[in-house]
Amino acid sequence: MSQYFHLHPENPQARLVRQAVDIIRQGGVVAYPTDSAYALGCHLGDKEALERIRRLRQLDDKHNFTLMCRDLSELGVYAKVDNPTFRLLKANTPGPYTFILNATTEVPRRLLHPKRRTIGLRIPGHQITLDLLEALGEPLMSVTLILPGDTLPLTDPEMIRDRIGKQIDLIIDGGACTVEPTTVISLLDDQPEVLRLGLGDPEPFGGSREH
Predict the structure, then answer these.
(1) 3-200 has which CATH code?
(2) Annotated domain spans of the chain
(3) What is the spatial order of strands in the sheet that 170-173 belongs to?
(4) What is the phi-psi region of residue 17: left when phi exceeds 0, alpha when psi lies from -120 to 50, beta otherwise?
């Protein structure tokens, strides 16, 4: 059975954050809250943990994973960002957006889009996630916690424990999250493209709610 940590959503307990990071570094799969839905995460370099998440969510090798980054400087290590893109990111992060960018060689190949060297990246506006990333010192490999057969992500940590408590190593209870996923923005071309409407406002990227 997984461990279960109650963390304060605005002032997470540093001791529990450190314990969570130890579990991640040792190959653990964790469920954790974000500024959109709950997510599953694991260490960026851990192939076995990544495969566990694939099996749990029944994902094929074409599914795009996301790197959760603590800030823009970390994001810039893993994605190619020119000056106009940097300004756009700076004005709209942290927040409930996933950005599709060209990856650098720092990103493991198994995380990349199979045909293009692209990767999804996020800078979340949730204190628990940000404290985890700060303590980890590198991005967290992440995917929305939506289980096979479900149409919406899990939002209640007690429900997460009931459904998958035996299949993951840690559940971080930071209170209920929204069911709405992030807004996904492609920044691969000169003009941003809204690929999925979600929680984040698409207007700064040329989209609208009527999209």
Answers:
(1) 3.90.870.10
(2) 3-200
(3) 3-6, 170-173, 30-32, 39-43, 140-144, 66-68, 118-122, 97-102, 183-186, 193-196
(4) alpha
**pLDDT digit string, tens, across residues 10-63:** 999 999 999 999 999 999 999 999 999 999 999 998 999 999 999 999 998 778
CA distance 175 to 12: 12
Q: How far apart are CA 34 and CA 22, in angstroms?
A: 19
What is residue 157's three-state secondary structure? helix
Own/partner pairs, 180-184, CB within 8 angstroms, 24+ separation: 180/36, 180/37, 180/96, 181/36, 181/37, 181/144, 181/153, 182/36, 182/96, 182/97, 182/98, 182/122, 183/96, 183/97, 183/98, 183/207, 184/97, 184/98, 184/99, 184/100, 184/120
CA atoms within 13 A on the CB side of 168: 28
Range name among 67-81, 85-99, 101-115, 160-174 with the lowest pLDDT average: 101-115
* Cα–Cα nearest to 202, from 99, 108, 50: 99
Element (H, E) at 143: strand 140-144
- For 168-190, what is the mean pLDDT? 94
Instruction: Let me know how many helices (H) and strands (E) the chain has, helices first.
Output: 6, 10
| pTM (two decimals) | 0.93
Q: Which residues of 194-205 are buried (b: 16+ CB within 10 A; e: fewer)?
A: beebbbbbbeeb
